[in-house]
């Protein structure tokens, strides 16, 4: 009886508890019972919307065919092809390269995002528009005038930026509610108006300030060799960075490297000058360049290692100095408040200590959550297997109990049938005995009648005819055949009883066969249901994992945007998820006793 109660308690458990979302949220995600996982995701979506992510699915996984808005917005030129405003290439089409896209476009995108994220004017950061650096020229009237002209252009540009900033912060609240794309378009339109204002100034021999964006100008290299008028086109040398320098300009680069220290290598735009070029330049007659009252002879080529001119490896160059010539020193005017500028194709350097620490914390937390989720999934697999095994055992036990009960019932039926058959045979034998006795009595009376002895009426004689003797012979024959007749009747009765017993046994066997077939169908149905539930568990686990990864992506994106807004920088490293732990074997897995899924294992035991 207790075993039967245990079986019924096993069947009381269904697989619905294994797929329960509340159990998954509480045990795997360590969330409280309220709110649920859906409500938590809704809160995260609202939080993401507060940071500017209106559609997490679209923002986290943007279509590949959608190009960046700032990269595709162009300014019309006199030529047929349109050029990007922020391209660093000489001739750029409407689709800019990856290097130019990463150079200045992020300034506008980050500003547009910060403008839409926090509408308070206190946190608005004006965009840092791309501008050419101040030129450093040789002393003289022409150079001084050129320097003053560029200084005036910079002042006008700063005034334009302040005007745009005050205009953006003085807008009504409804104007700030625009989407990031509208803010970006307004920023671009303001920039375009500023560039048009610069174009309206009187043109000099050089191109206007607008088209200086589209050429490889000298802002990429701060050397004064680019800003003078000594770059002779007849003796110009093409460098890897794109600049064309004369022999004197290259010697100026060498002079600047010596002025900065022995550890500095002559370079242009951060790229070291080739070894062969230096050898060819400094070995020419009259190539000595005065530095601080001393001449500059040819450098010692033995002190110039071949590996010192790589882009990523810089070593010192020993250039001996001479005091044969002493012309006037060359001075370089320094622009006020001019910070260090980023060279071409150089990634943005940000303080990544906090970002790396936060990323490590994210990965540690994600790894811990993945291990907890993987443990819960293994518990689900084990609980589901235990549930199906218990169900099969229960079906087998039920079948065996039903079969045993049916067999006992069949035995009782056969026993009752046999008792009835024995009773029928007994009654038949009694009837035969009575018939035998009656035939004997009748034969006795017929004998007395035919012999003429009538003890009852001796005074009345009677005549015995032939008919009476025939009856006597018939009665005597009947008495002689009576035992065989009774035996035949018994045999007929037994044959009928045997046929009835056989039909009953066949019927019982058919019932047992039907019972076995029903058990087989139930077993197959349970196996089919087990397969479907395994596939369902696979689908549920995959869906939950995808949802969990999307939740982590959204969480990281929210943190990334907050970090970029707080530190005024751009994070370029890609977020990589931690790998999922491998599934443990069922015999190694230990399900905690506090888990609800442990009930399935207890039921199996």
Secondary-structure topology with pairs:
Layout (H helix, E strand, L loop, with lengths): L1 H11 L8 H8 L8 H14 L5 H5 L8 H4 L1 E2 L7 E2 L13 H4 L3 H13 L23 H29 L3 H4 L3 H20 L37 E2 L5 E2 L1 H14 L6 E2 L2 E2 L2 H8 L70 H99 L14 H102 L30 H7 L1
Antiparallel strand pairs: 1-2, 3-4, 5-6
Helix pairs in contact: 1-13, 3-14, 7-10, 8-10, 13-14, 13-15
Describe this entry's structure for a reader.
Keywords: Coiled coil, Signal. Residues 1-16 form the signal peptide. Residues 77-101, 135-207, 318-343 are annotated as: Disordered. Residues 400-434, 498-551 form a coiled coil. The chain has helices at residues 2-12, 21-28, 37-50, 56-60, 69-72, 98-101, 105-117, 141-169, 173-176, 180-199, 247-260, 275-282, 353-451, 466-567, 598-604; strands at 74-75, 83-84, 237-238, 244-245, 267-268, 271-272. It is an all-alpha fold and 605 residues long. It has 3 domains: 67-202, no CATH class; 222-333, no CATH class; 357-454 and 498-604, no CATH class. The strands form 3 sheets. It has a two-stranded antiparallel sheet. The protein has a two-stranded antiparallel sheet with strand order 3-4. β1 (74-75) and β2 form a beta hairpin. The longest helix is centred in the last third of the chain and has 102 residues, at 466-567. It is rod-shaped, with a radius of gyration of 54 Å.
